[in-house]
# Entry
Amino acid sequence: MKRWIVLSLAGVVALGLASQLPGCTASRGGPGAAAAQKVYVKPGEHDTYYAFLSGGHHGNVYVYGMPSCRHITTIPVFTPEPAVGYGVDEESKVMLGGFSWGDAHHPGLSETDGDYDGRWLFINDMPNARIARIDLKDFKTRQIFGPIPNLSAAHACPFPTPNTEYVFAASRFSAPVPNRYVKVEDYAKEFRGIVAGIRVDPKDGTMSMGFEILMPPFNWDLADAGKGPSHGWEFFTCYNSEMGFDSLEVKASQAEMDFVAAVDWRAAQKAVDEGKATMISGVPVLDPQQVKGIAYLIPVPKSPHGVDVNPSGEYICASGKLQADVSVYSYAKMKAAIDGGKFDGDRMGVPVLKYEDVLEATVPVGLGPLHTQFDDKGNAYTSLFLDSQIAKWKVGPPWQVVDKIDVYYSIGHLMASEGDTRHPTGEYVVALDKLSKDRYLNVGPTHPEAAQLIDLRGPKMELLYDFPTYLEPHYAQMIKAEKLKPITVYPMVENHKPGAIRTAEEARIERKGNRVDVYGLVVRTHFTPDIVRVNEGDDVYFHWTNLEQDDDIAHGFGILWSSCNMQVEPGETKTMRWKAARPGITPFYCSNFCSALHQEMQGYIEVSPRGMPVAAVQRPAPEKTAEVAALLKTE
Ligand code: K7E
Ligand code: CUA
# Structure
């Protein structure tokens, strides 16, 4: 032990010297050594940020610590995770609604006054038009809302409003509303886009349907909420205002201008409350041909992708991905044009504003601008897909690029620390690159995705670290770690699950017809009961309560020759169904290493042939119950 301390002290001294003497730094590994110190988090110490990376078509959320770039955990959201029984236990199975896949693009942290408040994380499943809410108290998915009716793919989603009044979704594809058989050739006449406002309960985050707005059949792409002066508005980009329905790579790039739609969500909700909506597929839908003052179109050059509102809420930045500029629109100018009724016609009832009336500036950032984030010093950072760069530019005159950095390779989104809030911290930006090519050890034809941590604190952006991720982060968000206070156990006093039991004496097996309910305890290192007697053909529901109130002591419950496995965390009760398909002996065991006698934590299901009498209620052996009761007392 002593020797180890001496060695580690020597290490610290060496590091200290390295940072003071430039010559020494160079000889000890070049300029990389200084960058390494900026990402180094000493063993046992914590990162200063949580980063939530969407899992793309993996359907889940990855949690990283920043600046160390260490992968801390993966939160199962739209895709089953057998290791913990997500999508296997009864509750999460119902939540997944029969889907075993999602494509998650945009995490959206809940906000209060336009800043992250650390309560919930929302994320979209594009293809199935769903939104999930993760509770940041326990990092668990607690609600999946949808499929949202009438909506074909929720890509511009969820992008919460400044007080998390709403999360939004807009249809990436258009389709008939309500969906019915029509000829695809009748696209322009029969298809419609949808903007959907999903209400969020301010107390517990529960999502419910607010309203939908019929939009022209363009491909609605991305969104951002207004804030400050523009609070009350949500902005959506689109491509394919040409209304092509095939060969979009050609046909959707014809028009000089596509649009940003500005939606006044308070006006929309008011119109619904006043009964101006029509019910379609059970949802109140507003038609801008009849209901005025809810949506407007702002022309944007050349198939825009991202739209981002700056921290003060005065500017709306959209970038045509086939252009070399970011177009910056002024909220004040937009408002003046709307109030003055200065429109250039309409598209299916949605008034079109004039480009010159609303534009504040164009910033020549470089090729393939996609997304923009912000810092605390009035700078914006735009990802350039084609140039594989990030451009840093000043928000305000002379609207010029002040720095650029290369990224490896083909950047999509970028995430600055709290960089889409009212108060970005301006410390880091992470480039989320689509291609990693040669950056990591070769693992065959498919490479990992590439993420890169960049320091924003100096006058020049500085690349600090590369880290690979699994498929396929699109957007991500980074929040100060001190804003989150996750629990360490589920308090037993708050466990009101119907299947929960609190003492070994309550453990029992109850039968009603073919249904068998096992009410059991999992505690180091027993299943009580550990012998379960059922009949062939029975539907067995195991309700296991983990009575432990100790950090990190989860027990597993895995049944042989099945896909039945789940994890029960301290203070939790979970239910899993297992079908007793054939007579014989089926062992089960704790699948999560929990203690010195983890291996002994096992049991048997005895399945008797159909028709053999089995008691309606069974109790575990009294000695075993006493043993567990004694164990619990000493805890
Ligand atoms: Cu740009 Cu789905 Cu937000 Cu990917 S999207 S990059
Ligand atoms: Cu309980 Cu391993």
Notes: The two ends are 31 Å apart (CA to CA). The longest helix spans residues 2-20. Residues 192 and 584 are 57 Å apart (CA to CA).
